Amino acid sequence: MIDLSPLSYSDLVELKKNLEVEIVRRKESEKQNLIAELQNLVASKGFSLSDVLGTSSDKKAAKKAASTAKAQFRNPADAEQTWTGRGRKPQWAIEFLATGRSLEELRIA
């Protein structure tokens, strides 16, 4: 385990930001590796992923046509929780604002 006690507050905040970025990067990398493994496995059996999963390019095109809003705010306690700024505020944003802090502190750069 890493001893964090000698780090200053600003060092810890920077470390947290770097960790969140690295976690997202590694999750995406793991996902891509898994997709490649699955493609190789189904190809060795004579299928494609779309054959096995029952997807088609028509469904993919329909999904791409309906764009989703980009996340504008991120929960500092859990980097996977985001909010587009549309609709009702999530509970984590409400609790953050209740501490007297600004919504701008949650904005994704």
Automatic annotation (TrEMBL):
Keyword presence, Transmembrane: no
Annotated region described as Disordered, given as residue ranges: 66-86
A Pfam family: Histone_HNS
Annotated InterPro entries: H-NS_C_dom (IPR027444), H-NS_C_dom_sf (IPR037150)
Main location: cytoplasm
UniProt KW keywords: Coiled coil, Cytoplasm, DNA-binding
DNA-binding protein H-NS-like C-terminal domain residues: 63-108
Presence of the UniProt keyword Cytoplasm in the record: yes
Coiled-coil regions, chain positions: 12-44
Localisation per UniProt entry: Cytoplasm, Nucleoid
Protein family per UniProt: Belongs to the histone-like protein H-NS family.
Name of the protein in question: H-NS family nucleoid-associated regulatory protein
